[in-house]
Amino acid sequence: MIRILLNRLWQTVIVLFGVTLITFLIMHSAPGHPLQANPELRLDPTAVERWLELQELDGPLPAQYLSWLSRLFRGDFGMSLIYNRPVLELALERLPATLFLTVPAFLLALGLAISCGTWAALRQGGFGDRLLGLGSLAGLSLPSFWLGIILMMLFSYGYPWLPAAGMRTAEDSSVLDILIHLILPLTMLVVGSFSYYFRYVRYAVLAVLSQDFIKIARARGFTELYIVFRYVLPNASLPIVTVAALSLPLLFTGALVAEYVFSWPGIGRWIISSTLARDYPVIMAVNLSTAALVALSNFLADLLYLLIDPRLRFKA
Amino acid sequence: MLWSRVLVLIAISFVFLFINGCQKSSEVTNSQILHVAAPASPITLNPLFARDAVSLEAAALLHPQLLGTNPYTLEVEPRLFASWELHADNLTYHLRLREGLLWSDGTPLTADDVAFTLLLICHADYTGWLYPLLRFVEGAEEYRKTRHSPYAQGAIPGIRVIDEQTIAIRLKQVHAPFLSYLTFPPLPAHKLQNVKVADMEEHPSLKNVGVGAGPYLFTSWRPDEYLLVRANPDYYLGKPEIAEIYYRIIPNIEAQVIELLAGKLDLLPTAVKVEDVEMLAADRQIRIHKNSRLVYDYIAINHKQENTPLKDRRVRQALAMLLEKDELVANLLLGFAEVLHGPLLPLHFAYDSEFSQEKGSLPAARELLLQAGYPQFKLKLIFNSGNIVRENVALLFKEQAAQVGVDVQIHALEWEAFLAALTNGDYDLAILGRSTDADPDLSFHWHSQGAGNRTGYANEQVDRLLEAGAAVLDRGKRTELYRQSQALIVADAPIIWLYSRQAIHAASADLHNFAAHPESLFYNVHLWSLAGRDGRP
Amino acid sequence: MVRRQGVELYLGISLIIFLTVFAVLSPLFANYDPHQTDAERWLQSPGKEHFFGTDRLGRDIYSRVVYGARVSLAVGILAMLLSITVGTALGALAGYFGGFADQLIMRLTDIVLVYPTMLLALTLVAIFEPAIWLVVLVIGGTGWPAVARLVRGEIMRLKNLEFAAAARMLGASHRRVLLVHLLPNALGQIVVAATVAVPAAIMTEAGLGYFGLGIQPPIPTWGNMLREAQNYIRHAWWYATFPGAAIFLTVFAFHLTGEGLRQRLDPKSQSGRERRAYDH
User: Fold this and answer.
1) In chain B, whose CA is at the least distance from the CA of A116?
2) CB-based burial of residue B499 (10 Å sphere; 0-12 exposed, 13-18 middle, 19+ buried)?
3) How much is the ipTM here?
4) Are residues B348 and B255 located together in one domain of the fold?
């Protein structure tokens, strides 16, 4: 088991290293300098030049990579070209809003998916199962930005029940106010993630249901509910945990779009505007840290697998 | 098992949130808060480093101008400087601050603060955009070149503090527009004189503006979300009526209008879509305000490439004739713009309302092209995608040009790609916008040495006229000189002038005394009030 | 289970055929030039003259949606071909030879897989200026690892079966074993992967267009039409509704087909771990 673990750890390290290298190379193949002098603003060209010098954009490539890497290890992700402040600081300022949106969305989508997925699997081939199956396919096919626009059109304008933008009406807004602002972006996120989780959960539960011990349990006359909670879900939890861990990129992309559409003051919107403005240090840091986060969560999922699944534990 | 735990977790967190929500506290009732929409987050609140429109506007809430301009005539007006006099040499200005000016921490605001600010702007490490405005101050250029210390210290011969209230500024040559440049605010010397100039842009005291002197004082700022400011009781023009301004960042312009209609915003400044005006004006809760601005859109002509027909003046003149600008403004901008034929804007005192380009006529344009020997050629027209007005200008221009034998290929470019194409000269024509000075001095864009002269326009006669225009103080003479330069510039057809769009603001009907300045939204913010709302529960 | 089979497949395939016909023959169906502006008739609601109404510049939305189908399908299919080709080649090599080659290729796929596709696509397009070929390259270039994993797994399974070993013993070259014996047997899986790669590419392209980094106007694409439309959702419901519905319908058609094929190939369905490969 230790060997498998070390092997996976080693692989993760390689992936992380590759991610830094690729991110760095992508950024350095960028043609020209960022911060094109903008004719619609009145920039002093000499100031722009001096300012670029301050950013230390010059130097030989490998040396730059190494110094960038060593700064990364010290937690220095560089300075935003637009805000002229540390990227990490800018990201941390926006993290709470993003968590406030994504964590409930994640829990809600997963909770719904687990209940619906189990229910559908138990009635495999039935009307409800087929409806949910088609529905989740449709959910996967919905462009989230379009869904957001339609939601805003319907529930902020057509029926002006819900706010169209932001996180709070006033600085001292009640949490209720924030929750009301949360509804539309949350819905947007949940629809996509639910469809995704639902399909996995259903497959996972189906796989468990086809096992012999379920047939035995049924033969022993246990109630359906008891079987589900005592046998099915614990056994299906492994693939579900994996999927949950692996869905991080999906959740991330979802948040990007939801924050952009509903002017949510989180990391996603900042990333979009930084990308559009070619704020290279920000783009670099964000690509790097999300990729690293995903790699680590993959590793954690593997770890969980090892810890939970006895077969794997003894194989090594 | 898992999902039941999840449910419990969700339930617990909701209970927690609701308990939290009950502790709502509020000192200021909603009726005294003005909710203003901003299309983007301010990047900095430091007025000397702000480069983008939102930052400049937000900074204007927190920092008072040294001098201002009249919103209708653009004549220089007193602000922090109550009075000034120009000595007989026409070079030395004595500027006097008002009595009893205070920073919000109680420290007096004096001529030393002003001198400190001027030194800061002229310092070699200063990275903002204001320095070119001070380059005519005697010794400023030398000071910027030498860099004795990393701090804004030392002396510029042309800047002299006379007493607590008075500062003298001497120019190295007569420069008529000079006073109109002093519209930036001073920074508190007692807080910042021990900060290196290179660190000034990131200095926290300018992010959270601990000390200010503007109509409002900093309360809190959540980047990308809001900026909250409170009325400054010691503001030199009197405490503002509205207790707090909640500047809410909503990039989505449709969402802005939806929030205004829902009563959650009181003011959408500057960029209300022309298509919305009629509908919003019909709403009794909403009032539409508009004003002219010092900006215009134009088509830039790249004549720097080799072998381009655009080098020929007749070709450029022909292109300038193609568009029916009046129709364009009527159909596309629904009339909320001024057709433009030359570089002087209606707000400028030197503006000539009689002045117009030759009326657009396709046969005349065709004739000019034939004379120039270019019966047929191709041009690449670029504009930034997402700007539907410019897209339509491009499409119309292509259509018209096709009729005189010019094949215009239009390329919409994403913003940064667009800027890159401009920088690299990878275009023949480009639709752009620009802003101009309050003073009609055209040197910035049209003098061959002008800092904003990107097209490389050079006409010796124009240079001489512009230099003469800045060197005389008499308004009549200046008007004449600038009109002459305008005629010369337009005859060269260096760009195609299109229109100057108005700023359209939508405000709640409760907002009184709102009036925007062509250059600043909040110039009289201390007079605004939400009077109608007091009686409401 | 048996009863279920096919419904999705037939529905999906007929939708795809329907959409393809529209896209290919768009000049026949579009009753207006998609670029023709009309200063008098902007933002007109759907009616007899303009089935889907007009946009802010008076262009016919129906014609633009129909033309947009060309761009979207072309980008989707080209990107799919790219990711299938690269993915199959690398996956087959990794699965067949194992060892160091496998390690190398799989780490590479891991590295690409940990980037959220949309973010990477945004980044790349932002850096190298948006253009059609780049959008295809970026979407295809980020989509191949999923295919590679799938093919690798399939090849590893197949190569241990008797027929492959027999072919090898009879003196067939590696190339022959791979191309003639193994890959054709993995074809089913590859086709499923292909039907899922197309909608993913279409979605990414639309997303890039929505953020303003896709194919630039005035070329109509569903994504950039939505971008324009989002500023007029109060004036014209039809502006955003129809391009979005077109994306939905197309993506849905491919998902249905993919699902139908999957059921046919493997009625028992796979467990979550392997399925990850093509649902990104």
Assistant:
1) B3
2) buried
3) 0.86
4) no
Give the confidence band of C21 by pLDDT, cuts at 50, 70, 90: confident
Q: Tell which B residues from 45 to 84 touch A, by Cβ distance under 8 Å.
A: 51-52
Q: List pLDDT tens digits, range B169-217.
A: 999 999 999 999 999 999 999 999 899 988 887 777 666 778 899 999 9
Whether residue A296 is contained in a domain is answered as no
> pLDDT tens digits, residue range B112-145?
999 999 999 999 988 888 888 899 999 999 999 9
Q: What is the pLDDT averaged over residues C200-226?
A: 90
Distances (CA, A) of A255 to A184, A259, B165, B250, C110: 12, 6, 54, 17, 23
A287–C123 CB contact, under 8 Å: yes
Q: How far A70 CA lies from chain B's nearest CA (Å)?
A: 24
Highest CATH level, class, for C2-279: mainly alpha
Please tell me whether residues B356 and B457 are part of one structural domain. Answer: yes
Q: Report whether pLDDT(A46) > 80.
A: no
- Pair (B309, B257) in one structural domain: no
- Residue B483 sits in the same domain as residue B410: yes
Across the interface, whether the CB atoms of B435 and A42 are under 8 A apart is answered: yes
pLDDT for A142: 94
Domain span at residue B80? 67-199
Using a CB–CB cutoff of 8 Å, tell me whether B22 touches chain A.
yes
The radius of gyration of chain C from alpha carbons, rounded to an integer in Å, stands at 22
* Burial letters B333-354, b for 16+ CB under 10 A, else e: beebbbbbbbbbbebbbbbbee
Q: Which of C37, C59, C226 to mutate to test the interface with B (most CBs of B within 10 A)?
A: C37
| Residues C24-37, mean pLDDT to the nearest whole number | 80
Cα torsion B123, B124, B127, B128: sign: positive
- Asked if the Cβ–Cβ distance from B248 to A50 is below 8 Å, we say no
Any A CB within 8 A of B261 CB: yes
Partner-chain contact A143 C114, CB within 8 Å: no
**0.90 exceeded by pTM:** no
Extents of the domains making up chain C: 2-279
The total number of structural domains that make up chain A = 1
Residue C119 confidence (pLDDT): 87
Q: Do A146 and C123 touch (CB under 8 A)?
A: no
Can you spell out the DSSP letters for A207-219?
HHHTSHHHHHHHH
Q: Does residue C234 sit at the B interface (CB-CB below 8 Å)?
A: yes
In a domain, B249, yes or no: yes
What CATH number is attached to the domain comprising A170?
Answer: 1.10.3720.10
**For residue B57, is pLDDT > 60?**
yes
Range of the domain at A166: 95-265
Contact between B180 and B478 (Cβ < 8 Å):
no
